[in-house]
Design brief:
single chain, about 20% strand, alpha/beta, about 30% helix, two-stranded antiparallel ribbon, 8-stranded parallel β-sheet, Arginase, Chain A, hydrolase, EC 3.5.3.11
């Protein structure tokens, strides 16, 4: 797999052509092999790119322009359809190559299981890594219907890898009894239902540490993001998620990588989900890349 040539397909708005001069590599992970309800998130990365063409290049929130950030869109990793184990291995190797070049990896999913191999690679480089997880679902199962490789298991794997005390979840409003019991007893941090306010309280405690941030679009209420595989009523608004992104941007956090996952465009003919996701990506690029 190479990302040293400009991607020939659709690219995120204002992506540069020069990899060597870029600080960020934007890449897609078109995988939805383990979803338990509605597939289709494999189409998310390209739809986010397509929707980005409608964005303004300037952020009035952060008072920055995309021309101030150097990022390269490497396109999608060519993952083998229906093979989660091999796909995860390829994602892990791909991210290791990005990190070896000193670049900031910004991934687009794809189902949430794709975050697991990224965080494995990040932890290898940053042993004191902390993870901020923004999601409707706990994702703390050990397996789903006998399958340990499931989009409902990535955060449990992360906890076991880096220690639950280094995992911070926000916006959680869905999961089975055992997941919430594990969160309570393991020592991980879990803020149920809300994101912006509890996040502001936690951020000072993470100042200076390398932090990876993973955002599942279904943290938004379905009224704001119907285009996702496992929509969950009772979520936050787009404005609240923007507030959270900007809180991270204005904090002392050392964000070393991020992803945004679970956009499934086929369930949203209005395209509001992909449009919102593209705006979140813009704000991440402008706010988290130092």
């Amino acid at each position: 797999m190479r990302f040293d040539e400009a991607y020939s397909g659709k690219v995120f708005i204002m992506a540069q052509q020069d990899l060597s001069a870029s600080d960020v590599i934007l890449y897609g992970m078109p995988m939805d092999w383990t979803v338990s309800f509605r597939p289709g998130s494999r189409f998310g990365p390209n739809r986010i790119r397509e929707a980005s063409i409608g964005l303004e290049e300037y952020s009035p929130y952060l008072e920055r322009h995309l021309e101030e950030v150097h990022y390269f869109d490497a396109g999608d990793i060519p993952l083998p359809f229906g093979n989660p184990a091999r796909s995860l291995e390829m994602i892990r190797d791909y991210v290791k190559k990005i990190l070896a070049q000193g670049k900031f990896p910004l991934g687009l999913g794809g189902e949430h299981l794709v975050s697991w191999p990224i965080i494995e690679a990040m932890h290898e480089k940053y042993p004191d890594l902390a993870v901020i997880h923004i999601d409707a679902h706990a994702d703390l199962r050990e397996e789903y219907e006998g399958e340990p490789l499931s989009h409902s298991t990535p955060l449990r794997k992360v906890c076991e890898k880096i220690g639950p005390e280094n995992v911070y979840s926000f916006g959680i409003r869905s999961g089975d009894r055992e997941e919430f019991r594990y969160a309570k007893e393991s020592g991980m941090y879990m803020a149920k239902y809300d994101v912006a306010e509890p996040l502001k309280e936690v951020l000072p405690t993470l100042a200076g540490r390398p932090v990876y941030v993973t955002i599942d679009i279904d943290v938004l209420d379905p009224a704001f993001a119907p285009g996702t595989g496992t929509a969950e009523a009772g979520g936050i608004s787009s404005k609240e998620l923007l507030e959270a992104i900007h809180s991270i941007a204005r904090s002392e956090l050392n964000v070393v990588g991020a992803d945004l996952v679970e956009v499934a465009p086929n369930y949203d003919p209005t395209e509001q989900t992909a449009i919102a996701a593209s705006k979140f990506v813009r704000e991440i690029l402008l706010g988290w890349v130092k």
